[in-house]
Amino acid sequence: MSQSGRSPGSLFRKALQEAPLVIPGAYNALVARMAEEMGFRAVYQSGAALSAAVAAVPDVGLMTQTEFSEQARYLTAAVDIPVISDADTGFGNGPAVERTVQLFEKAGLAGLHLEDQQLPKRCGHLSGKSLVSCEEMAAKIKLAVSSKSDSEFVIIARTDARSVSGFDDAVHRARAYVDAGADIIFPEALQSREEFQEFASAVDAPLMANMTEFGKSPVLSANELGDLGYAAVLYPVTLLRLAMKAVERGLKHLSENGSQTAILDQMQSRQELYDILQYEDFEKRDREHFS
After folding, report:
1. Is 210 a catalytic residue?
2. Catalytic site residue 288?
């Protein structure tokens, strides 16, 4: 339960009312805290960013449901804004989907998204994906909905059909997933502005867009997507990519110069970090208890 007394799912649903909701991917708790302080109203735990940042492995279904939920606990403990998470394929069928929902809800998440890929899954913007049947995915969604203890916990259905079986199948599947109880539909890897617009016209449900970089989808602004009818926009790996490029530059500089003096102005200062960590509050409480 959040400090406001409302459940994370309820807070996320409220944030969606001011569309388009811009949701940056937070690959660790410090990034989530920074996003909150910058005024973002929700953050996202991306499977791609989690796999890369935590384990240095690709997004091909190698991280487990418990690793996802454990990392999610760090994010939800660090912020008061709602956090939603990738849940891959639900990590299996039947009881696995049920357990995933329960673990994610207990971790303090506001919701999750399930995708209709077969295992081994692939990043949504790569080739080589295969899909489960529409009926099997609809059954997963129904099970996910029935497994949650908080009625406000958000179930998002992602379809990867566009790049596997075509646009029309993506629309067909989305409608079936709405009928199965999905709160939000997430069409992955649409390939033009016109497809985003056509999909929004064809599917009567709140929609989530993925604006990952270097993928199959064109980069559209959040306001443009909002005008097209999308309630939320994900930026799953943006911050990780920016951070890793900065790390690359820093490593190169240290390797070539053996000193960081010339790049101090590119760093977050000690005080800036301590401010985000609320270090002075910890010191104050320590003094109150042990002085």
Report:
1. yes
2. no
Phi, psi of 48 (to 5 degrees): -65, -45
Q: Lowest mean pLDDT: which of 60-69, 126-135, 145-154?
A: 126-135
pLDDT band at 76 (very low <50, low <70, confident <90, very high): very high
Asked about 158 being catalytic, the answer comes back as: yes
Set 13, 36, 41, 44: catalytic member: 44
Q: Which of 182, 175, 186, 103 is nearest to 143 (CA)?
A: 182
Residue given tokens 């949650």 in the structure block: 148
Handedness of CA 164, 122, 46, 90 (dihedral sign): positive
CA 211/CA 88 separation, integer angstroms: 18
Residue pointed to by tokens 């079986």:
165
Whole-angstrom distance, CA of residue 43 vs CA of residue 281: 24
Look at residue 115 and give its three-state secondary structure: strand
Spatial separation of the C-alpha atoms in residues 80 and 76, rounded to whole Å: 7
Active-site residue flag, 274: no
- Of 116, 123, 162, 173, which residue is the catalytic one? 123
The pLDDT-based confidence of 127 (bands split at 50, 70, 90) is low
* Residue 86: active-site member: yes
Does residue 3 carry a pLDDT above 60?
A: no
Question: What pLDDT score does 125 carry?
Answer: 58
| Domain over 8-238 is classified CATH 3.20.20.60 | yes
- Clarify whether 213 is annotated catalytic: no
Q: Which pLDDT tens digit goes with each residue over 231-282?
A: 999 999 999 999 999 999 999 999 999 999 999 999 999 999 999 999 888 7
Domain boundaries, the chain: 8-238, 244-290
Cα distances (Å, whole numbers) of residue 291 to 122, 279, 288: 55, 17, 6
